[in-house]
Amino acid sequence: MPLFLLTAALPLLNPSTTIWSQTPATHYIESSVLGNGRLGAMVFGGIGRERVVLNESTMWSGSPQDADREDAHKVLPRIRELLLRGDNEEASRLVQENFVCKGPGSGGAAYGRYQTFGDLVVQSPEKEFTDYRRVLDLDRAVTTVTYRSGGVNFIREAFTSAPAQTFAYRYRADRKGKIAFDARLTRPEGAVGRAEGSDYILEGQLDSGNPSIPGVQFNGRLRVSTKGGSVRTDNEGIHVEGADEATLVFSADTSMFDGDFAKRTKNHVDTASGKSFTNLEQEHVKDYQRFFRRVDLRLPEGASAHKPTLERLQANKNSEDDPSLAALYFNFGRYLLIGSSRPDSPLPANLQGIWGDEINTPWNGDFHLNINVQMNYWPAEVTNLSDCHRPLLNFIPRLVENGRKTAEAYYDADGWVVHTITNPWLFTSPGEGASWGSAITSGAWLCEHLWDHYAFTGDKAYLRSVYPTMKGAAEFFLDMLIEEPKHGWLVTAPSNSPENAYIDPKTGKGLAVTMGPTIDMEILRELFTNTIEATKVLNVDPEFRTKLEASRARLAPFQIGKHGQLQEWLEDYDEQDPHHRHVSHLYGLHPGDQISPDRTPDLAKAARVTLERRGDDGVGWSLAWKACFWARLHDGDHAWRLVKLLLHPVTDTSIRYDGGGGAYPNLLDASPPFQIDGNFGGTAAIAEMLLQSVKGEIRLLPALPKAWASGSVKGLKARGNLTVDIVWKDGRVTDYKLTGPGSKNVKVRLPQD
User: Fold this and answer.
1) Which pTM was predicted?
2) 54, 212, 446, 583: which has the fewest C-beta neighbours closer than 10 Å?
3) 315 shares its domain with 263
């Protein structure tokens, strides 16, 4: 394909589905991201030296371990006694000594970490080049690199196919015999590369952290086929000379779930190599679009809409309104969910989805359960990707067995519990630091996803299958709740408000351990309510239902504090950090539905005060959550302000907790560093601005910014298994359509009502 044809087509690139650059990437935060739910690739588009970072979702070190402190529950009465009499400092000391995991926790080798598979490196003779363009087409999940070098037009196309379970990368030129390169697979440690016939193999084993348990083994296979020219393979790689066209096919797998992983990898490469690149691409695009094309969002284009993506981000920072950039971010979030969490993905999307170029991935690239993995799946149902929710929904019940042991060890309680962090080895113990690692309602929060999937789909067979998991979580809290003496409320103890600290009035110190933080009460109110409803839908456990109803009625209620804010803790403590990134006590506003401007105006006002006191700045995922909050408060302009902050260009990749969030040049979320939850949270926020469905009511355009005066969206989902299409002009709905069971009976509210 001559380059001039591609250049002429440049103005036709869809600004809502195209991420593009005029330079090769120098870091993965600039790369073109591809994924099929298990295999990931980040294409740099380099000239002379191409680098593709390769990922496989089960590339985890570590192994199963018993990290519970079996006798921790013996100290529980003393901790509660101290909390009840207000000696929070001594209670905190005992919690740190006893209510943490056994051993080093997330810092230990046995806990493990998600790691890069390695790199595909392609060395080619081109050095000088012009007319460079690298495009990621979200509608087709294909990245294309075009450039001119030595009087020759070159084009490369890459995708990661779910049907073929391979990464495919084709090199072409408009003159015969001009394709030449040396390709190899590399990894920083723990791997050996070798030739096997015409293929190049990269294989190795990760550290289990336990000498008696074998670590995860891995195998990657690269094959190159050409038209014309020659191909030879040796232990240094695969060498192509004088070809008209060359296609690289790669697949990888690990031993985590299948002992025949190496055979399966070879089968994938054999099958894919037996097809033409065109057939592989057509098969891939058809399969991918059955997910991506379920939703179509159209928003007005700003002045910079057709410029390279980084220039669009910079224009946004300079106060340009470009709603189509929000549509691009929304579509990129859906793209990333499809790319990291297909219905058959072996694991849920982690802190980085499935993408990372490091051995030491930030925070181990694990599953943080005090908001992060949940935020990953906030857009799943509403953006019509309910089946992409499955990897998380399938993972949650797997935590129950270990969670029962943890519940007994720490709380002498029935049911199951999991704390702040987990991994593929199903770690349920508290983390190694009590101030952050002992969030007690993480499992209950996960159960919200089990119920929400039912609420959106109406699938009773599914609800019946997950009801035991929900019931077990509720049983745990029925056992562990205690009565606080001042009001007779039922509260959790010990607990904390995730990662935040209050100023202890007795000592003036910043402490985390407390009784009954607001988020716990919100999550338990939700868990008990959803489990009660499940018993009614399934017609089971009437006696258990009665217990839940009685306990729910006694949970500590919302309280409004001295600043007019929603209290974060049982007492009206001052925050150690008033601008903290977590805003956990607004869980009842979002993702919960206990706070609403219509139903609970006083609480909504207190939530607004809380957000104003917290401020708009934050790390990436925090910006996304705040956008969701403002959308639920029906303040579209403020929600848009937060989305625009999410779209501020960032290049910093250091770990920060104090703010500085935004978007990297390739639109991956900059927390910083890269955390994919910000992408998914931002996508969910945009959906919340367009559609909300709670308490049996559908609200269209509940938080529409003035800048989005006209537009349309098709294919969003509302609870009750309803599909929603909306068209609007000048801020007013001009047409809408609901399809699905009960669509004629649901209450619909319009912005003009």
Assistant:
1) 0.97
2) 212
3) no
